Amino acid sequence: MSKNIYLTPGPSELYFTVQDHLKTAIQEDVCSISHRSQAFMDIYQNTAARVKELLGVPEEYYLVFTNTATEVWERLIQNCAEKQTYHLVNGSFSKRFYEFSGLLGRKATKLDVPFGEGFDIDQVVVPEEAEMICVTQNETSSGAALPVDAIYQLREKYPDQLIAVDAVSSVPYLNIDYRKIDSLFFSVQKGMGLPAGLGVWIFNQRCVEKANSLEAKGLSIGTYHSIPSLLEKAVKHQTPATPNVLGIYLLGKVCEDMLRRGVEQIRQEVEHKAALTYNFFEAHPNFECFVQKKEHQSQTVLVANLVNCTFQQVSEYLKPHLLQVGSGYGKWKTSQIRIANFPTHSKETFFKLLDLLQEFKA
Amino acid sequence: MSKNIYLTPGPSELYFTVQDHLKTAIQEDVCSISHRSQAFMDIYQNTAARVKELLGVPEEYYLVFTNTATEVWERLIQNCAEKQTYHLVNGSFSKRFYEFSGLLGRKATKLDVPFGEGFDIDQVVVPEEAEMICVTQNETSSGAALPVDAIYQLREKYPDQLIAVDAVSSVPYLNIDYRKIDSLFFSVQKGMGLPAGLGVWIFNQRCVEKANSLEAKGLSIGTYHSIPSLLEKAVKHQTPATPNVLGIYLLGKVCEDMLRRGVEQIRQEVEHKAALTYNFFEAHPNFECFVQKKEHQSQTVLVANLVNCTFQQVSEYLKPHLLQVGSGYGKWKTSQIRIANFPTHSKETFFKLLDLLQEFKA
Predict the structure, then answer these.
(1) Is a pLDDT exceeding 70 seen at residue A109?
(2) Cα–Cα separations (whole angstroms), residue A68 to A75, A225, A242, B241
(3) Cys-Cys with B11: which of A6, A257, B189, B267 at CB 3.0–4.6 Å?
(4) How far is B39 from chain A (nearest CA, A)?
(5) Residue contact B241–A1, C-beta within 8 A
(6) B143-195 pLDDT, tens per residue?
(7) Residue B39 touches chain A, beta carbons under 8 Å
(8) Could you tell me which residue ranges the Aminotransferase class V domain spans (chains A, B) (predicted)?
(9) Per-residue pLDDT at A3
């Protein structure tokens, strides 16, 4: 049976080894073992170590599992900001992160730029009272990315604030110096090519101390997924509640596969496929790069305006070839195309996609 | 390859059809479809309808998906109690539910009875200020259950308070009149026999109104998993964040299988296996029913004190026969045995288990 290939920006095509790992997981009773057993602790320890190895996370940074990246927005604000957060907002997801702060009773301030644009760090003015700067490194909704150098500039300019990085759709492509940020998080159903239902949250001692200080003041920092509660179990390679054991197992296995392939190789391939696609957008009369500035163009979520055609036309054209691409987000649903460029998407798939689109006529 | 059979009280043995449904899920791209697509909405709608059908949940009750039952403790308190909750505490999980209320800044009061005991409803005195009565229908840690009639008595005695029922390890065996409670929740890795990583939260209009009233007062009721946020998406058969799509799919399929078998049949079989096991505990010199009062003995988590032997001895004895049973919880780890009696555990498995244990000598 021929299956579709999903070039959608999450959930997306599974990493090509996942199906085999699922079989092994069933054979090895991964779904039945206790989350307090040595067998589970071994899985947890392996996955945490492999994720850190793949992404280059320093030894002293903590790594815990949550349910989604969306949950981490909530937990970060609960644990690491008593009164005020600051946000760079340029799309639907960065906007939602900002809104969470208000919903949790914090004062949230922001720098807003239009959908599809990036940020000029010189224009960023973080209020002194803001305790955390929240950035969305890769805006999945618009395909605008924040270069790591811009994040490092923020660190230099605001050394006292915590810097939290939403890297939902850029991991493992994103190559960042973790020592220049305080927290980073992602979900596994995008670049990692796994079934949805698991988030990964990385943070440093400064975040722990902030959470501890809020707790010491008698403020509520949540319950089972507060930083202290997560860490109390993480040191034992366990979780506060029964986790998505299968998801944690699969993440470790896919990290092993990616490590064998080599993260540098993966990153080069992502850049190669992105370059081909952006060049195509520039050359074809029905497509037009949505993010204008090259340095703000995401390498993993490639977005184009559709000229004189609709997303439905493009989608219907590709359907017989078993290629599924993403529509624009929200009000851009019919007027844009979003193409995921994750490690599981092979060069051959991109050649096929672009060859087909080359022949597309509205 | 011979696999172990897990008679552990969660995670437990997968429902025997899960492996086939996993294969179909992969073939049908369940892990790659967008959680905003019609294909996902169809899955959501089917699963919600089948769960309600299987459990006899009235049409007008809401059903939403969370990450775990543990999460529901937090969301219930955030959404349905402004100042005070009341708890029946007789084990580790009911105690943790109670503690969550304090962690969220509420005043929590409780009736405490010793581990392994049930409750005499005549002794329950709920303070007038308590907005929600929280009961753990089946204490997974001790094997003590709260009969549904006791819950109905609570409703008659305290019609103004919300009643929230933790049914984590008793669904789908539990046969309860939902109109006599306001909320019920469970995780799928116990009686439903599914991979961990999904919770189901059922609640009525009174809970919605309570959440709305707290929000109208300007209080924080959380973010993406507040009742209004969950319902806003649920009416469209969607979720606020990318959910465990595979888990939701599998839950619907297993409900269909259980509906074909018939929930009455399943409940009768559970009772039959429980009776056999409790009779065995009473007759064998190395076992002794932990929960003394018959009406408080759980039908789904069967707990015995071990007499003149340790859990390790029993466990090692069963291991060559590929049967995995649960140890006691916490400080009862070596001195008790916990046997899960879920729908996936066949009568034949119980015959084999009890025949073997019959021959056990410490």
Answers:
(1) yes
(2) 11, 12, 15, 8
(3) B189
(4) 13
(5) no
(6) 999 999 999 999 999 999 999 999 999 999 999 999 999 999 999 999 999 99
(7) no
(8) 31-328
(9) 86
Among left, alpha and beta (phi > 0; psi -120 to 50; other), residue A29 is left
In contact, B278 and B297? CB cutoff 8 Å = yes
How far apart CA B259 and CA B256 sit, in angstroms, is 5
Q: Which of residues 217-236 of B touch A (CB under 8 A)?
A: 220, 222-224, 226
- Spatial CB neighbours of B142, under 8 Å, sequence gap ≥ 6: B90, B91, B92, B115, B116, B290, B291, B303, B329
Q: What percent of chain A has pLDDT over 70?
A: 99
Q: Within 13 Å of residue B145, how many CA atoms lie on the same side as its CB? A: 22
Direct distance between the N- and C-terminal alpha carbons of chain A, in angstroms, rounded to an integer: 30
Q: What is the DSSP string of B118-170?
A: ---GGG----TT--EEEEESEETTTTEE--HHHHHHHHHH-TTSEEEEE-TTT
The total of other beta-carbon atoms located within 10 Å of residue A204's CB is: 19
ω before A11 within 30° of 0 (cis)?
yes
Spatial neighbors of A143 by CB under 8 A, at least 6 apart, are A116, A290, A291, A297, A298, A301, A302, A303, A338
Q: Give every CB contact of residue A150 below 8 A, 6+ residues apart in sequence.
A: A118, A119, A121
Measured on CA atoms in the order B33, B35, B37, B43, is the torsion positive or negative?
Answer: positive
> Is B223 within 8 Å of A35 when comparing Cβ atoms?
no
B210: left (phi over 0), alpha (psi -120 to 50) or beta: alpha
A121-172 tens-digit pLDDT: 999 999 999 999 999 999 999 999 999 999 999 999 999 999 999 999 999 9
Nearest CA in chain A to B218: A105
Phi–psi pair at A357, nearest 5 degrees: -65, -30
Smallest CA–CA separation between A11 and chain B, in Å?
5
Instruction: Compare all CA atoms of chain B with the CA of A6 and give the residue at the minimum distance.
Output: B32
Structure tokens at B230: 């969950």
Model confidence pLDDT, tens digit, residues A272-306: 999 999 999 999 999 999 999 999 999 999 999 99
Report the chain B residue with the minimal C-alpha distance to residue A104: B220
- Residues from chain A that touch B32, judged by Cβ atoms under 8 A, are 4, 6, 8, 11-14, 324
Interchain contact A240–B (C-beta under 8 A): yes
In this structure, the dihedral spanned by the alpha carbons of residues B212, B216, B218 and B224, taken in order and rounded to 10 degrees, is 30
CB contact under 8 A, A195 and B245: yes
Percent of chain B with pLDDT over 90: 99
Which residues pair with residue A134 across a beta bridge?
A: A87, A164
Reported as type and span, the H/E element at residue A281 is helix A263-283
Q: Per residue in A259-284, is it b (16+ CB within 10 Å) or e — as a string?
A: eeeebeebbebbeebbebbbebbeee
Residue of B nearest to A99 (CA): B223
| ipTM above 0.95 for this complex | yes
The HSE-up count of residue B217 (CA atoms within 13 Å, CB side) is 13
Instruction: Identify the residue whose tokens are 């969370």.
Output: B66
Per the CB < 8 A criterion, the answer to whether B119 and B90 are in contact is yes
Which chain B positions have a beta carbon within 8 Å of A103's beta carbon? 220, 222-223, 226
**B11 by DSSP, 3-state: which?**
coil
Question: DSSP for A72-137?
Answer: HHHHHHHHH-SSEEEEEE-SHHHHHHHHHHHHTT-EEEEEE--TT----GGG----TT--EEEEES
**What tokens does A329 get?**
């987000």
Tell me the chain A residues in contact with residue B34 when contact means C-beta distances shorter than 8 Å.
8, 11, 326
Distance CA A242, CA B292 (A): 29
Contact A178, A148 (CB under 8 A): no
